[in-house]
Design goal:
Blueprint (H helix, E strand, L loop, with lengths): L3 H4 L4 E7 L3 H11 L7 E2 H6 L1 H4 L7 E2 L6 E2 L14 E5 L7 H10 L19 H8 L7 E2 L10 H9 L7 H4 L12 E2 L2 H14 L7 E3 L2 E8 L9 E7 L2 E10 L26 E3 L9 H8 L5 E5 L3 H12 L4 E5 L22 H7 L4 H12 L6 H12 L3 E4 L3 E10 L2 E9 L10 E4 L14 H6 L4 E2 L2 E2 L6 E3 L2 E5 L5 H4 L6 H47 L12
Length: 557
């Protein structure tokens, strides 16, 4: 008769990944890859303790000759055979929310370069995929990156200046002409198809991603499930419980978006705001209210608040969708940057600023470096040009260093509109049919509801809303909860929240998970040997004392 209790035991996964975005896919793919490509040089490996830990576990690029030394081949029992499951609150597939927002914003090309992607095989995997599919025409060149576009006058002036270690002189990166092909923006369609190809290659498609919203995470011995008192993760979701030996947190900004409420004095903190939306919560664009008024032939006006790329995309898209006029407010001067971070943070190998970051003595120093590198929101030159075109045609009014200080919702026969006040005051500013906030999301690990149990039972230091993880991106040395993406910025650097940090985080996490399970196997082997020795001693003890049958010891001897 079958053992009923054994049949009803819940399944324990080796790895549960919370968040099925690009960072989560990068971790899952790296765990299944037997021979990953190099993302560090031998010089970086020797210099930085965070890389030195793994010895020959990772492939390295030789600085002098450019060749790649392969890592030691993993055995059949290593991480490629792990039982992996991913949980996502909004979709049952990889990069679902990512694709939804890109489609909603009608974004054709990514901001990132070609070597920022999720494949662990090679730095140039996305570029190779584009050419293998004959889709190189979908690549958009990024200007003013490659070294030849720096004039001789600027080079001479920079050489004569006295520069400190962190000045613009040292931070300036001269990109070799042979790397020009890397500085193209892939189309969203190409990147999305490449992510699907990566998921298919590593058999991560069917049933791996579950649409479940995580509510709590705990780590302790689970009665009736843990073997030999092994602590397990209990992941509580809106659909039940999931058990895992290791958990990877890849939740992006993590916190819920919030609209600055100080300007809406007539509304309580919990009261919903009509005809107002945060950029990450957009379902249709423009909103149904605006669409209806456009259909009825009414002049429509939309207010966009924010200083980053998303705000520029919304302003551009609103005008292209037929909104009569868009007003765009920024509280700071407009910042024009090709990428979120400077080139000195994102070169393919031998990253200059990353080296400074790894050498920092304290997390406070690292936090300052990350904040200084990222600054506030910025707009790439391509979108800045679009905004200037809209301004010249009278479709866009852009005001920098301007804040929204008051907003009143006024109901008329034609429908409700927002009457706003700004600082400094803008004479003749109209009423608006809709207000969009593209103000980003403030990351604060202390405010995440599903981490409250972990913060109580396994507390760690937190600085600036970010957890102080181990160099392996672990919650604690004895707690195999791994974190990647923006929450791991104190370990990954300024590019951690971007695709550039996805592969770096995946590499560290995969090596740490492999090390974790190897350690578990060694402990199980030692426990098994001890148990076998105790069994032999007990049998001989019974034989000498004359207990039971004296012939029982002959069964195995």
């Amino acid at each position: 008769m079958p053992d009923i209790s054994r049949q009803t035991l819940p399944h324990v996964h080796d790895v549960v990944i919370i968040g099925a975005g690009p960072c989560g896919l990068a971790v899952a793919a790296r765990l299944r890859e037997k021979a990953p490509g190099a993302i560090f040089t031998d010089e970086e490996h020797r210099r930085h303790r965070v890389l030195h830990r793994y010895g020959r576990s990772m492939p390295l690029k030789q600085v002098r000759n450019g060749r790649v030394t392969c890592c030691a081949r993993p055995t059949a029992s290593d991480t490629q055979d792990l039982d992996i499951m991913a949980l996502d609150a909004t979709h049952d597939g990889w990069c679902g929310r990512w694709n939804k927002l890109f489609k909603c914003y009608d974004i054709e090309h990514l901001r990132s370069p070609m070597f920022w992607h999720v494949s662990p095989v090679d730095r140039d995997a996305l570029l190779g995929y584009a050419y293998s599919q004959n889709r190189e025409n979908e690549l958009l060149e990024i200007h003013h990156c490659v070294g030849k576009e720096v004039s001789k006058h600027i080079r001479k002036r920079t050489r004569t200046q006295k520069c400190s270690a962190h000045s613009a002189c040292n931070a300036r990166v001269e990109i070799n002409e042979r790397d020009r092909i890397d500085y193209f923006n892939p189309s969203q369609a190409l990147f999305s198809d490449h992510c699907r190809a990566v998921a298919s290659r590593y058999h991560l498609c069917d049933g791996v991603v579950k649409k479940e919203s995580v509510q709590d995470i705990s780590f302790d011995v689970v009665q009736g499930i843990s073997v030999n008192d092994e602590p397990l993760f209990t992941v509580t979701t809106d659909r039940g419980l999931q058990y895992a030996r290791t958990v990877v947190l890849s939740v992006g900004p993590a916190n819920q978006p919030s609209i600055p409420r100080h300007a809406f004095k007539a509304f309580s903190a919990t009261e919903s705001l009509p005809q107002v939306c945060h950029s990450t919560q957009i379902e249709t664009f423009p909103d149904t209210v605006v669409r209806t008024r456009m259909t009825n032939g009414q002049r429509t006006k939309v207010l966009v608040i924010g200083g980053g790329l998303t705000s520029a995309q919304l302003s551009d898209l609103a005008i292209r969708k037929g909104v009569t006029k868009v007003w765009h407010l920024m509280r700071s001067p407009i910042a024009i940057k090709t990428f979120d971070v400077e080139l000195s943070w994102m070169s393919k190998y031998r990253n200059l600023e990353q080296a400074y970051f790894y050498s920092a003595d304290t997390d406070e120093e690292r936090l300052q470096m990350v904040r200084a590198a990222r600054g506030g929101g910025s707009i790439p030159p391509r979108y800045h040009k679009k905004l200037k075109d809209h301004i010249s045609r009278g479709r866009l009014e852009l005001r920098t260093e301007t804040k929204l200080v008051n907003a009143q919702f006024v109901t008329t026969e034609a429908g409700g509109r927002w009457k706003v006040e700004t600082e400094p005051a803008i004479e003749g500013i109209p009423s608006f049919d809709f207000i969009y906030f593209a103000t980003g999301i403030e990351t604060d690990v202390a405010a995440l509801p599903y981490l409250q149990t972990m913060r109580k039972t396994h507390p760690i230091d937190e600085i600036g809303g970010l957890p102080c993880l181990t160099e392996q991106l672990k919650w604690k040395d004895d707690v195999p909860l791994f974190v990647t993406g923006r929450l791991a910025s104190l370990r990954l650097g300024a590019a951690g929240p971007n695709l550039g940090g996805a592969r770096t985080g995946a590499e560290r996490i995969a090596l740490a998970i492999q090390e974790h399970f190897e350690e578990c196997k060694r402990e199980d082997k030692i426990s098994g040997d001890i148990a076998a020795t105790n069994k032999d001693e007990n049998e001989w003890e019974r034989f000498v004392l004359g207990r039971g049958s004296k012939y029982s010891c002959l069964v195995e001897h």
